[in-house]
Write a structure and sequence with these properties.
Shape: globular
Order of helices and strands: EEEEEEEEEEEEEEEEEE
Radius of gyration: 26 Å
Distance between the termini: 51 Å
Number of domains: 2
């Protein structure tokens, strides 16, 4: 166990409506501990209590004008170590924990003419987190993760000196359970469940995923698939009680590929329903869009006639809409490369669209 004590002092400028500015002073302290315990030679318990990540590297500023979410790297040590099991199905994005409050920007609409926003935390406070992970002698990986974040409030100050608080993020519990059974030839089957439970009248969610991969003895051919079901529970106040809305979405993918040898090929199909939403603990994914990919490769690794080595690829990519079937982004490309015995190189490439794309946005 490693206890810690952190002290902080902030001296921030406050700009007034008349163009002048003043400074506000804010001091705080935090006390907590990091715990690592070896349950046995296979399983490890990691825990952090009231952590302080003030010394962690900050993110680079990114100006994003696209419809896609910017995915940041994780720099906090607790969320970087022993997370392999929890990454199954790409359902765990640790930056959701301790994120910017969901009401951080909308709270400005709560400010009246005779009020000013005096305090608005930009980060939710993590109270504690723990994870237990390991693998049995028979290849069964077991992982358990839990984290709790505190309420986040913005403070609005009135002209008469009084103030009121607005909840921008509720007390939240994040939980993940994962099982992963490994077999011979890099084959495996897994199950993962991720849930997010919030207090007050904020949305809850539950996400479950499963997948499998089977490879042959030579480990040069594999086939597999995975599927995910997402559920979001919204509570809306009604005149005669509470109405609960349950939104269910899903996605699945199947594919097979041959790797190794002179000839390699593969194909994948990914389908995502319009109501798919795993963003409470996972990455953002554009819902309601499907894509199909395929590739063929012919490579020469040993000299043949006047060619020392050669690498040649053919790739096809097509995106289609879940509801209408309209074709979006699509392409076909070919890349040819040959290194001659004289050590001169010859290469060529071409690409084209198969269909005129429909702009979904």
């Amino acid at each position: 166990m490693v206890p810690y004590l952190a002290l902080s002092y902030e001296h921030n400028p406050l700009f007034n409506e008349d163009g002048s500015y003043s400074y506000s002073d804010l001091s705080s302290y935090s006390l907590g501990a990091d715990v690592k315990y070896g349950i046995d030679d296979r399983f490890t318990l990691d825990m952090t209590l009231l952590p302080d990540f003030g010394q962690v590297q900050s993110d680079r500023i990114v100006k994003n004008l696209s419809y896609r979410e910017v995915v940041y790297d994780e720099n906090r040590p607790f969320f970087k170590e022993a997370i392999e099991l929890f990454s199954k199905g790409n359902l765990f994005y640790s930056r959701r924990i301790g994120k910017t409050p969901s009401g951080f920007y909308s709270v400005f609409d709560e400010v009246m003419e005779d009020e000013t926003l005096s305090e608005n935390p930009s980060q939710v406070k993590l109270l504690n987190a723990l994870k237990v992970s390991g693998r049995t002698d028979k290849g069964l990986g077991v992982g358990f993760f839990n984290a709790i974040t505190d309420n986040a409030y913005a403070t609005i100050k009135k002209s008469d000196g009084s103030h009121r608080r607005v909840l921008t993020e509720p007390f939240t519990n994040y939980n993940i359970i994962v099982l992963d059974q490994q077999f011979k030839n890099n084959s495996n089957i897994y199950f993962i469940n991720a849930s997010t439970i919030r207090k007050e009248k904020f949305d809850d969610s539950n996400v479950s995923g499963a997948g499998a991969k089977i490879s042959n003895k030579k480990n040069n051919f594999s086939a597999g698939g995975e599927g995910v079901i997402t559920q979001r529970f919204s509570e809306n106040a009604a005149l005669e009680g509470n109405v609960f809305n349950n939104s269910i979405g899903y996605k699945y993918s199947i594919g097979a590929e041959k790797l190794g040898g002179n000839f390699m090929y593969g194909s994948y199909r990914n389908v995502t329903s319009p109501d798919y939403n795993a963003t409470d603990l996972g990455y953002f994914r554009v819902a309601g869009q499907n894509n199909t990919e395929g590739f063929f490769r012919f490579n020469l690794y040993k000299p043949w006639k006047f060619i020392r080595e050669s690498y040649n690829n053919l790739n096809v990519f097509i995106t289609d809409d879940f509801k209408t079937g309209k074709i979006g982004d699509n392409s076909i490309s070919i890349d040819l490369f040959a290194n001659l015995l004289s050590w001169n190189a010859v290469f060529a490439g071409a690409g084209a669209q198969l269909f005129r794309p429909y702009d979904f946005f």
